[in-house]
């Protein structure tokens, strides 16, 4: 995890106000690799996830007003396979789940499922066809709604030369997005030739722009070494163009995957994540912010109030933004020489929310500055579920710790670390 010395050296950038949300109601079990989505700024919907001892297809709802959890019994749940590392989005009153995998068997999913959030009835839409008709099976990708389309971005085991697809939510047909990478000099390169898909990245949308950070790729040279990214990319939905954010020199987040992201007013926030090695996993508890409107943009560490109850180092946690607040849930947590799984929910206010009164906004800020006591236990396990994801699918993690940086003159523009 990030050293205290580094935090002090970089100095305070802004005054953070993380808060632990005390558990109320039927809280989800300790797990990682689930999905968390914002439903109308009224509730958060958690689906799936698991650990090396448990994998789920259950649905839990967190009420943003009462801050209480409840498990929702769903109809037709037998058609929904338990899964991790899937994607979930909300369109109108439907939760749309795509892809993922079974942790205990090397089974990859390509099904599209729909949960009616008014009747709580599951229905199977279809199984995504393989290229050229669709993206096929996928895991460790991200999905985002823009207009009436669900965009599916990158991911692992993509048996396709197209890294971005969209599902038309009016007729459920798949369409490839022939996007390009716009270099800093202004020239464009076919995106498929410019960069490999980054699995386990974090991403968020603001307006017509998708922001994407981190993730990993398997080296084409060896077919086994895992390359971790620390680059931040922007994708414009209207032009289908990608661009790497040209960040000023200086400290920046360590290459990683399985972290979380929030974007507000052009400011990109990154928390947590990890990078696997052959004998250990480096977990991160650092919290970074970058203002994409600055000239040039610069990564800065977000420091904490002394009394702030910030989340510990973790990865594979689910995340969502609701009422101008970043929520992170669960994840894999290092404890001594072991890993445990969390069932804790944390929040970080990104600004005032129009869904809350002035008094409620003030209470949220004050509550975040008060010390809290977390008495809920973590689930101890012998090894990491996310690392097991790589083992189960046959990925070999290199033990090398040398830096692997691609030339800035090449069209890839992706800063990677070989671990």
Please describe the structure with a list of short key phrases separated by commas or semicolons.
single chain; 419 residues; mainly beta; Neuraminidase; six-stranded mixed β-sheet; five-stranded antiparallel β-sheet; 7% helix; 39% strand; disordered N terminus; disordered C terminus; KLHDC3-like; Kelch-typ_b-propeller; Kelch domain-containing protein 3
Please describe what this structure looks like.
The chain has 419 residues and is mostly beta strands. The chain has a single domain, classed as Neuraminidase (6 Propeller), CATH 2.120.10.80. Helix content is 7%, strand content 39%. The protein has four helices and 37 strands. It is globular and about 50 Å long. The two termini are 16 Å apart. It comes from Strigomonas culicis.
């Amino acid at each position: 995890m990030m050293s205290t010395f580094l935090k002090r050296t970089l100095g305070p950038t802004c005054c953070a106000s993380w808060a632990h949300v005390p558990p109320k109601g039927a809280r989800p079990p300790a797990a990682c690799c689930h999905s968390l989505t914002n439903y109308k700024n009224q509730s958060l919907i958690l689906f799936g996830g698991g650990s090396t001892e448990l994998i789920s297809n259950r649905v839990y709802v967190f009420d943003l007003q009462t801050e209480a959890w409840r498990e929702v019994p769903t109809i037709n749940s037998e058609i929904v396979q338990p899964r991790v590392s899937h994607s979930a989005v909300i369109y109108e009153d439907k939760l749309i789940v795509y892809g993922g995998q079974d942790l205990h068997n090397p089974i990859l999913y390509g099904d599209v499922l729909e949960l009616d959030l008014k009747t709580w009835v599951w229905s199977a839409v279809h199984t995504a066809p393989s290229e050229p008709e669709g993206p096929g099976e996928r895991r460790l990708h991200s999905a985002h709604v823009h207009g009436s389309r669900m965009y599916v971005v990158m991911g692992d085991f993509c048996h396709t030369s197209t890294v971005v697809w969209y599902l038309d939510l009016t007729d459920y047909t798949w369409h490839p997005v022939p996007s390009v990478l716009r270099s800093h000099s202004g020239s464009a390169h076919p995106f498929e030739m410019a960069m490999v898909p980054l699995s386990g990245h974090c991403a968020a949308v603001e307006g017509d722009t998708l922001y994407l950070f981190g993730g990993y790729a398997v080296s084409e040279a060896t077919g086994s070494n895992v390359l971790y990214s620390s680059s931040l990319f922007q994708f414009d939905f209207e032009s289908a163009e990608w661009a790497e954010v040209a960040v000023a020199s200086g400290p920046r987040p360590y290459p990683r995957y399985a972290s979380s992201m929030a974007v507000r007013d052009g400011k990109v926030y990154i928390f947590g994540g990890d990078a696997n090695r052959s004998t250990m996993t480096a977990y991160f508890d650092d919290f970074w912010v970058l203002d994409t409107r600055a000239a040039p943009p610069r990564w800065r560490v977000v420091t904490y109030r002394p009394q702030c109850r910030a989340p510990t180092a973790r990865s594979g946690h689910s995340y969502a933004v609701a009422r101008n607040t970043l929520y992170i849930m669960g994840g894999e947590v290092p404890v001594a020489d072991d890993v445990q799984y969390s069932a804790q929910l944390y929040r970080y206010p990104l600004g005032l929310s129009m869904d809350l009164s002035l008094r409620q906004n003030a209470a949220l800020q004050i509550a975040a500055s008060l010390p809290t006591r977390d008495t809920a236990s973590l689930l101890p396990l012998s090894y990491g579920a996310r690392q097991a994801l790589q083992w189960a699918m046959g990925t070999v993690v290199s033990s090398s710790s040398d830096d692997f940086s691609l030339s800035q003159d090449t069209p890839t523009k992706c800063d990677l670390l070989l671990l």
